[in-house]
């Protein structure tokens, strides 16, 4: 017997075919799993590429939406600005209209006040004339005259023919007949009563006061029964007369009566004067 018959061999025991098959199967499974995993990983890795390709489309849509939103915002802002401008213009117009209304009311009130004052003055003048007529009638019937002022209603007992400067005064006032009456006017297209008298005497170099109150005492008091052309007639009391005119002869006078008639020629009986002064 060999001396090595009982010695175990150092070589590795041979694997059986079944063992090798199992191991091969396991290895194949592992490799298959790895292949599947790799394939899956590759598939998953490809997805971002697909999403990245879609990004430009999404970005363009978003830009368009943003632009539309900006346009809408700009249009809304322009609309609000236009509306604000319209509101401001309307407010300004309303404010101006209110101011115009206040001014119109103010002017209307002033016009009414002026008209009322003018009516009051005319009414007072009419009342005073009526009172003077009553006084003249009474004193004429009683054959008496008032102190300092003649109230005799008889007229034209003096000369009726104007001469010299008186003739020039008479000629001037007759030339103004038909012109307008304007309070405060002294010619040449309009006069008030004292303005006409003052301007008439100015033609012959005589300076008379401006207002009727002063003109009624500017000369020598004369009786209404001894009037001469060129005498200054007055209505009211001497020194406080409210109307004056010029006697032109033949029982007639010329005066700037009122805004309705203007400068007219009237008989003394139309509106009998209170007295007269002789300046020339």
Can you give keywords for this protein?
280 residues; alpha+beta; endopeptidase fold (from Nostoc punctiforme); 2 domains; six-stranded antiparallel sheet; 12% strand; rod-shaped
Tell me about this structure:
The chain has 280 residues and is an alpha+beta fold. The protein folds into 2 domains: 59-144; 150-278, endopeptidase domain like (from Nostoc punctiforme) (endopeptidase fold (from Nostoc punctiforme), Alpha-Beta Complex). Helices cover 54% and strands 12% of the residues. It is built from 4 helices and 8 strands; from the N terminus they run H-H-E-E-H-H-E-E-E-E-E-E. The chain has helices spanning 17-142, 164-175, 193-202, 212-215; strands at 180-181, 190-191, 220-222, 232-235, 243-249, 252-258, 262-267, 275-278. The strands form 2 sheets. It has a 6-stranded antiparallel beta sheet. A two-stranded parallel sheet has the order 1-2. Helix 2 (164-175) crosses helix 3 (193-202). The longest helix is centred in the N-terminal third of the chain and has 126 residues, at 17-142. It is rod-shaped, with a radius of gyration of 62 Å. The protein starts with 16 loop residues before the first helix and ends with a strand. Residues 39-43 and 135-157 have low confidence and may be disordered.
């Amino acid at each position: 017997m060999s001396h090595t018959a009982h010695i175990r061999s150092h070589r590795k025991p041979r694997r059986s075919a079944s063992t090798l098959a199992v191991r091969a199967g396991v290895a194949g499974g592992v490799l298959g799993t790895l292949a599947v995993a790799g394939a899956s990983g590759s598939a998953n890795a490809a997805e971002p590429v697909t999403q990245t390709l879609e990004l430009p489309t999404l970005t363009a849509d978003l830009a368009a939406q943003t632009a539309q939103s900006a346009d809408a915002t700009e249009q809304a802002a322009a609309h609000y600005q236009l509306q604000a401008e319209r509101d401001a213009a309307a407010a300004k117009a309303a404010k101006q209209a209110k101011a115009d209304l206040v001014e119109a009311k103010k002017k209307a009130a002033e016009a009414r006040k002026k008209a009322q004052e003018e009516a009051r003055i005319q009414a007072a003048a009419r009342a005073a004339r009526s009172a003077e007529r009553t006084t003249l009638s009474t004193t004429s019937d009683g054959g008496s005259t008032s102190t300092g002022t003649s109230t005799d209603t008889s007229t034209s007992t003096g000369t009726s023919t104007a001469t010299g400067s008186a003739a020039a005064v008479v000629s001037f006032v007759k030339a103004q007949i038909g012109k307008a009456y304007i309070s405060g006017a002294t010619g040449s297209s309009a006069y008030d009563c004292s303005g006409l008298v003052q301007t008439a005497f100015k033609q012959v170099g005589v300076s008379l006061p401006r207002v009727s109150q002063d003109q009624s005492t500017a000369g020598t008091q004369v009786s209404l029964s001894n009037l001469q052309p060129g005498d200054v007639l007055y209505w009211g009391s001497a020194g406080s007369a409210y109307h004056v005119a010029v006697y032109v002869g033949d029982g007639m006078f010329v005066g700037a009566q009122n805004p309705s008639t203007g400068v007219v020629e009237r008989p003394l009986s139309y509106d009998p004067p209170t007295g007269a002064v002789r300046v020339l």
